[in-house]
Amino acid sequence: DRPREDAVSPDASPLDVPVVSAKIHGEVVLLLGWGSAILLQFAHPLVARGVADHSGFRQGLLAPWRRLHRTLHAMVTLTFGGPDEVATTARAINAVHDRVHGTLVEAEGSFPAGTRYTAHDPALLGWVHATCLYAFLRAYELYVAPLRDDEKDRYCAESSAVAPLLGIPDGVLPRSQAELDAYLARRLASGEIVVTATARRLAGELLAPPGVRHLWPLTWLLRVTALGLLPQSVREAYGFRWTARHRRALGVLGWLVRHGRPLVPPALRRWPAARASRRRGPARAFARPVL
Fold first, then answer.
1. Residue 83, Cβ neighbours under 10 Å: how many?
2. How far apart are CA 34 and CA 42, in angstroms?
3. What are residue 101's DSSP bridge partners?
4. Contact 109, 194 (CB under 8 A)
5. Structure confidence by residue, pLDDT tens digits, 130-147
6. In this structure, are residues 8 and 20 in contact, taking their beta carbons and an 8 Å threshold?
7. φ, ψ for residue 150 (rounded to 5)?
8. Tens-digit pLDDT profile for residues 72-120
9. CA 27 to CA 143: how far, in whole Å?
10. Which of 49, 93, 177, 280 counts the most CB atoms within 10 A of its CB?
């Protein structure tokens, strides 16, 4: 049976007790869902262009890892931090977004040349947010354990609590699994989500970062874990090869991680902030997976 503290009370506010977000975000193995979320984000032409023009993602050997470190720090702080830490992190995210804006020099997907973009656009923030929910839920279930339907709903509701901190209007972020599924289906069918040449270049650098391209076990692991959780339509749009052999490899990897995880000491399995939060007990916090 599941521990009692994992149960979800329908009367609890997502701002008061981020039960499921703490459960999911506390797992170090959630890193295996990061690549899928990023690839999905790149599939929006304006997100891909914003990353290409403004992110340090492509600036040197350690740039992707520095970006990942910042992302993880933000996610963990928004989930487990106190009010002051949460506010500071939100201000830092907004400050980064202040610098990310521009104009398309040439057409990108369905967006014509001259289209302006900004990281404060609620539509782009909503897409980034939804891709994280999608990838992290799938990664948790593959590498840790299945989630109940009410836990998935609760996770979406808890994660939407960040909307006012980032200036996202009410109703933009999905608050349940059904809303998340409907949102993704609607966006994928809209014609806006197009894998451009920019997205393919960024994807190549994500899956084979400079300096590790010849370390085939590592690059193979990056590819299998990132591509395996993608919607089939997006994976095909990138032109990635995905065979029965890849599916079996992902299944074996998931089995090994799920069954090996309980043997790993909590100090290596859970983020320090997650372990400290569990010792303190439930606390008021905002929760949102963010990139």
1. 11
2. 13
3. 118
4. yes
5. 999 999 999 999 999 999
6. yes
7. -70, -30
8. 888 898 999 888 999 999 999 999 999 999 999 999 999 999 999 999 9
9. 10
10. 49
